[in-house]
Every structure is written in structure tokens, then in C-alpha cells.
Inverse folding.
């Protein structure tokens, strides 16, 4: 992508932190309000993809590089599996809750659900950004 | 027919019309933009059916990610059908 006009660039630069913050809110409040790991992760990924569309691939890779995205996706997947094995080792079933439940409606409550949503959010964010990078790099190799 | 149901049916008809326009347009970039509008309309319908989870996901994926994916694909190929 070569980049867009100055209007698109300015709006993308100003909107990036707010979009990122909204996605983080959706992920962290996944067990209290509508949303969760997948929609929040998609919104965070959309904020980086917006920079990619406006400025070109170099500026987006400064925010989140290819290796960084790959490592983050692996971390998300490992976090989900480790949380599941916690339940298997301490309780009875895979992904069973072993942490204290807390009060209903508080941010730190619902046992392992917030941690699980955090893992899903990280994995979805890195995965969708990797889809776009893979698409752009595949076209680039074809052209050479 | 209650007002809620009336608005909901009007939204569904509007969604159908937007999809038809997206199919019939010859400029693919306009077609993608109309498709994003159809996605937002579908998200509103989901919200009125009391599924805010699905509405958020539909708005983020349908209007955000797939639109950019289509725009990148069009920039690599031809714009006119």
C-alpha cells in the first residue's frame, strides 16, 4: 500500500489511540458487558490496520512488526491452554474455574474468565494483523 | 404491528436493497462501501433482536476488517468489473 491523502492520514493518526482504548475496554470488561475476547481483539487489530491503510506498511510495522505479531499469537494460544490445564490439574475438568469468584459486577471477579478473554484477545489481535501482513507480503513476492 | 417491529422490517428491506445495489454496481470500490453499509444495517438489526454481542462483532468484522481486506484486494487488481 502506497498511502493515502493527508485527510485520511490525519484522521487515522488521531483516531488510533481511541480505537485501541475502546478495544482494550471491550476485552477487559468481557465478563461484565457485551463483547469479549473476539470483538475486542478485532477492534484493536482494526486500529493497527487503519494505520496500515493510511500510511503504508512501514508505519504499521513500527507499531507491531511481523515477528512481534507471531510471538504474541503464540503467547495467546499458550495462555489459553495453560489456563485450561490449571483446571485439569487442580480441579476436575479442562478450563474449570479454580480461582476465587469475587463479587458479581466487579472488575476483578468471575474467576479465570478475564484471563481467558485476555488470552483470546491477544491471539485474535495478532492473528488478524498477521492475515493482513501475509496478504501484503504474498503480493510483494509475486511482483518481484 | 408495533413500532419496534415496523422499524425492524424496514431495516431488513433496507438491507436487501443495499445488497442488491452492491451486486449491481460496476465500480468495485463503491460496491465494497455499500457492503459495509449493509453490514452496519445488519448490526442494528442484531441489536434490536437483543443480541448486542453479535452486533458488536458484526460491526467490527463486517464494517472494519473485511472492508479493508477488500480495499487491499482491489488495489492489487482491477477496480472496474
Amino acid at each position: 500500500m502506497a498511502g493515502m491523502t493527508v485527510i485520511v492520514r490525519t484522521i487515522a493518526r488521531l483516531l488510533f489511540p481511541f480505537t485501541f482504548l475502546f478495544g482494550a475496554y471491550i476485552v477487559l470488561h468481557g465478563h461484565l458487558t457485551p463483547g469479549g475476547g473476539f470483538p475486542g481483539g478485532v477492534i484493536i487489530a482494526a486500529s493497527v490496520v487503519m494505520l496500515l491503510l493510511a500510511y503504508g506498511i512501514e508505519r504499521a510495522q513500527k507499531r507491531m512488526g511481523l515477528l512481534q505479531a507471531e510471538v504474541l499469537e503464540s503467547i495467546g494460544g499458550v495462555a489459553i491452554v495453560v489456563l485450561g490445564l490449571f483446571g485439569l490439574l487442580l480441579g476436575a475438568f479442562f478450563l474449570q474455574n479454580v480461582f476465587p469468584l469475587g463479587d458479581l459486577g466487579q472488575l476483578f471477579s468471575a474467576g479465570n474468565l478475564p484471563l481467558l478473554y485476555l488470552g483470546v484477545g491477544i491471539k485474535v489481535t495478532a492473528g488478524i494483523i498477521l492475515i493482513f501482513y501475509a496478504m501484503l507480503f504474498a503480493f510483494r513476492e509475486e511482483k518481484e | 404491528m408495533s413500532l419496534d417491529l415496523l422499524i425492524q422490517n424496514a431495516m431488513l428491506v433496507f438491507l436487501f436493497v443495499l445488497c442488491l445495489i452492491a451486486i449491481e454496481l460496476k465500480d468495485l470500490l463503491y460496491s465494497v462501501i455499500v457492503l459495509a453499509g449493509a453490514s452496519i444495517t445488519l448490526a442494528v438489526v442484531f441489536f434490536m433482536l437483543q443480541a448486542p454481542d453479535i452486533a458488536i462483532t458484526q460491526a467490527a468484522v463486517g464494517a472494519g476488517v473485511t472492508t479493508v481486506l477488500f480495499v487491499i484486494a482491489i488495489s492489487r487488481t482491477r477496480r472496474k468489473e
